[in-house]
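Quick check before the chapter quiz. The format below is the same one you will see on the exam, so make sure you can read both the input and the output lines.
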Amino acid sequence: MHLIINHFRYEHFMKDYRPRIADNLLREKLEGMGAVLIEGPKWCGKTTTAEQQAKSILYMDDPSKKDLNIQMASVNPGILLEGPAPRLIDEWQLAPQLWDAIRFTVDHRNEDGQFILTGSAVPLDNKEQKKIHHTGTGRIARLKMRPMSLWESGDSNGTVSLKQLFSQPEQITAANALDLNDIAYLTCRGGWPRAVSQSKRVSLGRAYDYYDAVVNTDIQKVDDVGRNAERVKLLMRSYARHQGAQVSLNQICADMKNNDHSSLDDRTVYSYLVALKKIFVVEDMPAWNPNLRSKTAIRTSDTRYFTDPSIAVAALGIGPEDLINDLNTFGLLFECLCIRDLRIYADSIAGAVYHYRDKEGLECDAVIHLRNGKYGLAEIKLGGSLLIEEGAKTLKTLASKIDTGKMKEPSFLMVITATGDYAFRRPDGICIVPIGCLKD
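Here is the expected output.
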């Protein structure tokens, strides 16, 4: 009965947007591994994606059975794993000891595609870590899900493929249908599946609902540590103001102190930040370290990002009109939107996204690096000839610094914009691509 009900729930959600990129990634991983763990923030669609490929399901947080499920996981975890494969264990982290039981079962069945695990939090505190004795390496693959990209939500026309940019960047040409007002709305709405199928007025409230849940409930539950809701708000507001920046913990702490007159130290801020990372609210970006012609020192600090731009919007208490009236803030949050989409698209082609900055101040918003060594450089700008030229100059400067005797030349140089009628490749080789044209 569960599978029939959830199938219709899925069809209702999916009627307004395209299949998720994670659907194919999950299918591929199940073909080559005994179990797959899907991680990501609440409301991003992990369970819905998993349900479509599961043959049986255990909902650990079913209110009528939650306590019994957790007790059984301690007494006889194997009984919870019985059922046709692949078996979905939803919110598995409620009973971390299930991890070892799944690893053990995968080993003894010696078959791929046995289990799908979903979770909205990472059990990393010492008490829970003691319940996990094996890493799961070679048995359990990981798949990270995020809120939907513009291509998945049906807002991007997908006429420019990131995969194609790595092979045939000279052939891109496309028309863009989104304007600045559209992008402002999409930044504030975010990629939450339920919001995508709702009216504009209603959908803008979903990010605020998510934000309220994080501040008042989720950050408390992640490790059963009481945290001050007002300080969580201060931290998230500071993070929102520093999207795309490599600010230190000290700087964030100082920013928070301006609005918190009580005692506040780096350790407290760090503990709050770790909690936000455990529930996938925050997803910072690592630095890219290429081979350069000169001995330029590269900054290795992570770049600060929320997993979705709408979280920053809610933390700042703003909306689409506010972004239109404050283009500086709009630029920061638009960058967060583009990074979300690039990460999703890069996952589908075995890639990852990095940030570059050196001691001379040269900075590149996104480096999309594939496992085979190919990479592309991207700058993110709202639009307009001056900003686009600024981005193009940065890309050319960075490309000229790379030692192509030790690594490949960049496959493409791209300026991603919010506006613009067309996607095209300029005579100088720079690709201009509105985000409303991009897909994986």
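If your answer matched, good. Residues 1-16 have pLDDT under 50 and may be disordered.
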